[in-house]
User: What shape does this take?
Amino acid sequence: MTDIVLSIDHLKVALPAWSDRKFAVGGVSLEIRQKEILCIVGESGSGKSMMGKAILGLLPAPHVRAVGGKIMFEGRDLLELPDDDMRAIRCGRIAMIFQEPMTALNPLMKVGQQIEEVLEIHTRMTPLQRRERVLDLIRDVHLPEPGRMIASYPHQLSGGQRQRVVIAMALALEPALIIADEPTTALDVTTQAQILHLIKELQRAHGTAVLFITHDFGVVAEIADRVAVMRHGEVVEQGVATQVLRAPRADYTKALVAAVPGLKPRLQELDADSNVLLRVTNLEKTYRTSSGLFGGTVREVHAAKKINLELKRESSLALVGESGSGKSTLARCVIGLESVDSGLIEIDGERISGRTRAELRPFRKHVQMVFQDPYASLNPRQRVGDIIALGPMLNGVSREQAIAEARELLRLVGLKPDAVDRYPHEFSGGQRQRIGIARALAVKPKLIVADEPVSALDVSVQKQVLELLNDLRKSFGLSMLFITHDLRVAATVCEEIAIMQRGEIVERGATAEIFAAPSHPYTRSLFEAVPGREWISSLD
Amino acid sequence: MKSGSLGSYIARRLLQTIPVILGVVIVNFLLLQLAPGDLATVLAGEAGGAPKEYIDQLRARFGHDQPVYVQLFNYMKNLLFLDLGYSFRQSAPVLELLLKRLGPTLLLMGSTLVVSLGLGILMGLLAALWVRTWKDHVISVVAIIVYATPLFWVGLMLVLVFSIWLDWFPTSGMEDVVAFHEGWARFVDIAHHLVLPTLTLSLFYLALYARLMRASMLEQRGLDYVITARAKGQTERKITTRHVFRNALLPVVTMAGVQTGGLLGGSVVVEAIFAWPGLGQLAYQSLFARDYNLLLGIFFMSAVLVVIVNLIVDVIYVFLDPRIRIG
Assistant: This one.
């Protein structure tokens, strides 16, 4: 068995005494062979990241530590290795790519220096040789203008470029194994496709083994040779990628695969004669950064350029776009959190745009928002009941009645009515998002604006929340403006789709039509970027 | 990305300070009008009483008989030509008095900044490196005690211990005037006098910066880029010196900039305790003598000083943090 690069044998990682579980990783055995990409798939809390960190001894000691098992690499047990030897292995023989390219680089150090640091630690190259090697690496990861790039600071690069820098660092010494911990999760779909492609290309060229940690089966379908599915710190299934993806054996794997949103729109079109609830006409919004009292305008960002939209009563429209496309700005304008430069926003024939805060107040109950981050959007010091009841109470409902309604709403969103007396931190991410939905529904709005409501959730939870939104929408007769970066999610809940790019709507139409024949090149590139596209279509 | 040159940025910032300083002058001028009594009554009082005609005559001489807005207008007009008026109490032009006192105050502020920032950062750094050991606890507890102790009490105790009991340092003044030291000897003499005032004024800020630096170090140490550095195989020592330290420094520098205004306020007390011949002591004296011209001059000078120090801090910040865009 000489082709085994790394073998993990009954690895156990203990969590601190105050956590809800004893082990983050409870006896995992895995092998990674030469020139293969092994994907570890699991939802949050499955222990997949802890396992990755344990290999390089990067666990947040002393609270979290490996307590049992072996990690054999090049004939040595990494868990037993003295510090100095471990440092030589880090990046020298095993390198790591992290999830958050925004924070993984030192903000005060030039990018070139940060890559060079790896060579400085592990080799005896002269400064000149190091510089040459850094330039080569930057070319290898296809970053533009290597000369300018090495003199840039991280904040001057985009997320995708930063991730390329991190990959260049990982490649610097041609390690035997690269551990990639959700390296594309924080990126836009098209950027994700590019980075996945790059990782695969480099892996083939250098013959490196890759341990790829992800929660997304689409990504697995895109790059994996073999797959291991993890749950509660244990491997529930492992095998060749094609086999696990097409014919999963474990129930958990089956459930995960079933939760992957498909590429076929499920909903039929609504009857054409229902009237328009939300109308946006020629909306313009530009952000200007000026430099204080005497400075002129420094930078302009056109977040919305001549946007025209219509949303019919009891239907739902998805705004799909990547970060910076202006989709969130549009949503904030619709709920009146942001003033517009010009153009008109009407809800039920009433003008919303151009009103002052006080004038807007009577309209607030018609439009409600479900926010992206279920952790930050609920006041941690308020009871769930009070959070939900506040809206109706501001509209003149008595406290007793508002709380009674809150209990009913909680039941509707699938939580126990006695949740009214508990605090947000007692709930999981998915449950919190349900509370957020109940809060939005409490004032009986006509329109719900949902800003990436499921992008912070695990796939299985994501599916449940999407289904909940769909059911509620029908039973309450709501309209919904659904903002997402994910075409697959848009397809499951929305009859219509508008694709946004750089502040403009480039394509708009019925979901079924756009999915059948995307006409704009950008829409087509979005479709091509969906990870595991072929596999997902084969599932439907 | 730096847009525009540093020079034009500084020039623009200086332009922006003009309305700030004008505002400070006007507010101070009006505030002083609210204080009971004026120079004429104080002079009359010291003379053991005087007829009303004499006081009115004095007021007319000082220009205090005119309406407030005329006085303000005249003051502002003179200020344009850097004429800060005349101190009838000290019988000298205000500007001359101020410039004479500015040097000692700058000396005290400068040495305090160096000591408090230098030692504060060092203490914070060490506490963070020794986190949750007895050494960290000692530093943290001492910092909290010092932080909570009033300035004047620290000053008096230092005098008591180091000047009176141990006789290591002089109790007051900036130099030994009767010794007529020159050159190097004078420098040593002033440095000797400087120790206790600097220590008194520094301790509070030292504790503040130490606490801030410790917290900042610990926060930075948990960030992702530190794990990246560790994953590179970098040693813990180098991670601290190369990556964490500079990042941790930023909030301390910000705080130091904000605190320079407070430093001036603290120097009033310290200069009074140690008879340090600076602006603070002059302010203290002129307040009791109702010497408003001089007091206004001191306020003006302090405002200018604070504004300039803040500008310097902002410029330093541009060099420390590439994310800060000037312009």
About this structure: Chain B has a mean pLDDT of 84.
